[in-house]
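Need fresh eyes. Consider my entry:
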Amino acid sequence: MNLIAHPELLELLAASHALGTLRGGARRRFEALAREQAPVRAAALVWQGRLAGMTELQTSVAPDPAVWTRIRNMIDAEQSALAIERQRDAANARADSEPRQGGWLRSLALWRGATAAGALATVLAVAVGLNLRDQLHNAPAVQYVAVLSDDKDAASMLVTFDPKKKQLVLQRVGGFNEGNDKSLQLWALPPGGAPRSLGVLDNAPGLRLAASESDVHAVPALAITLEAKGGVPPGSGPKGPVLFKGALIEKTI
């Protein structure tokens, strides 16, 4: 199925992936599509950012001791299961069917690990009293989204535009560090026109820049260059190399 042609389903799958409730083959298929298709990858990153922001806004709550006991029991059970699987793997290594059974057992161990991790996430969500329905309803609107990648196609920056707050929201998703003597600068790349600066970025993991829809409307791509500290003067074009770039995708709110 073409997820890009079904935006509601894409949002649902991206939210489930971020929550950890999308598992098994469905999760692997979604991640494969995310690697191949920028809109799917962008949706996944947007939902990861949304849920991460929600947990940061939650007031601190001390979980009931029974929660930690359950987590400890889950970890112990998983370690015991993995020990048994390792023993079986060793036995299968001596059998003629090693290629078939060994791979299956390893996959089974990984599946069980993913299941335990999903259950652990659920327990923690309940422990902090995370009211997802209300908070997701109040999540920031996203009208435009771009995943900016380097020349090796590794995602480095997630850019979204919130029309309600009239701002661009940038989240670093890579490990690039420009250093103290350089600045990153965000550029709109309009068709047939010169690059237009959208702002200079600091080295924080997340950043918000004031912007209007006219700054991004009909702009097919964004780019980030490495400039001297403070960026280039207003009215000037980029001077440094292009580090990251990507298509700007308009979404239906």
About this structure: Residues 98-117, 122-132 have pLDDT under 50 and may be disordered. Residues 69 and 75 are 10 Å apart (CA to CA). The two ends are 22 Å apart (CA to CA).
